[in-house]
Specification:
Oligomer: single chain
Number of domains: 1
Strand content: under 5%
Largest sheet: 2 strands, antiparallel
Number of helices: 13
């Protein structure tokens, strides 16, 4: 288990500087390295006979996660400063806020084209026909889900397993976003990745929902009523909590690659607006603050 103060230090550094664009141009973010490895394995192994794809998918996630674990172990032996700095690679507080704030700013200027372009950077759905409420809903859903995937779950595994735990989680979560799909191409090859990601996010997602509800002063009822409606066993918890805390309705029909998909609704009330999106960002910041406070309490207990 990692020292909570080191985890809090990594969060503070990442919140202040993120991963600077100038650095990314010289040294791409380590998550992109994981993505390239997964893409290469997908290209080479996901062309095998259908009977072998599930086994090769298991090998893929074991290999990528194993490399991430080894990298975490190596860096952890370099000392506390290395742990704090390397820990920032697995966290996304600043980048998530900046991406969603860009959507909110465009909506506040009534610039729907800019808002669609901004939200397209954080969601996979079709955005060309989205109006203000559709854009705001997409951004809020991404904000809530990514609070877990990009922040709370990495912090959880950082605490539980140190840098190796953090890096292993990022490898699994990155792989899930790339190959953990139900489309025929990935159904077998990505099966092990999707199941592993479900397991690793089970508890963090519920903690994320609780923090969103606490930060928003509500959302418990919506989370209890609607979280399990989501196709994912985990994503519905923070999304439903955000909908309930804001008193709006999220979810509903969505289009991917020109194909309409029916989704359940989360929460009750009107559809969100630019004003709602700003309120969602404030809840997000407060939820991050609550997480920081819990880590500080854990740090004091750790030192005793």
């Amino acid at each position: 288990m990692a020292d909570p103060w080191l985890v809090l230090g990594a969060l503070a550094v990442e919140a202040c500087v993120g991963y600077p664009a100038a650095l990314h141009r010289v040294v791409p973010h380590p998550v992109t390295w994981i993505g390239r490895a997964i893409q290469g394995l997908d290209t080479r192994w996901n062309t095998a006979a259908a009977a072998h794809r599930k086994l090769l998918g298991i090998c893929c996630i074991l290999l990528v996660t194993g490399i991430a674990l080894c990298a975490g172990l190596a860096l952890a032996h370099l000392g506390a400063i290395a742990v704090v700095l390397a820990g920032t690679f697995g966290l996304a507080q600043r980048s998530l806020y900046d991406h969603v704030a860009a959507v909110a700013a465009a909506l506040e200027r009534n610039d729907l084209e800019a808002a669609r372009a901004a939200v397209a950077r954080i969601v996979g759905r079709d955005v060309a026909a989205l109006d203000e409420s559709g854009i705001a809903a997409a951004a809020l859903e991404s904000l809530a889900e990514s609070f877990n995937d990009g922040i709370l779950a990495p912090v959880f595994w950082f605490l539980v397993g140190g840098l190796p735990g953090l890096f292993a989680y990022k490898a699994v979560n990155t792989a899930d976003s790339m190959i953990g799909h139900m489309e025929p191409r990935w159904r077998d090859f990505g099966w092990a990745t999707a199941r592993t990601d479900d397991v690793m996010n089970w508890l963090p997602a519920r903690l994320a929902g609780a923090l969103v509800a606490l930060a928003g002063g509500g959302g418990w009822r919506a989370m209890a009523a609607d979280a399990r409606k989501h196709a994912s066993p985990n994503a519905g918890w923070p999304e439903a909590a955000m909908a309930g805390a804001l008193g709006v309705q999220l979810g509903g029909p969505v289009t991917y690659d020109g194909v309409s998909h029916t989704r359940p609704a989360f929460g009750e009330g009107a559809r969100p607006t630019a004003v709602t999106l700003r309120r969602g960002l404030r809840i997000y910041v407060m939820a991050c603050g609550l997480m920081w406070g819990l880590l500080a309490l854990g740090g004091f207990a750790w030192r005793r």
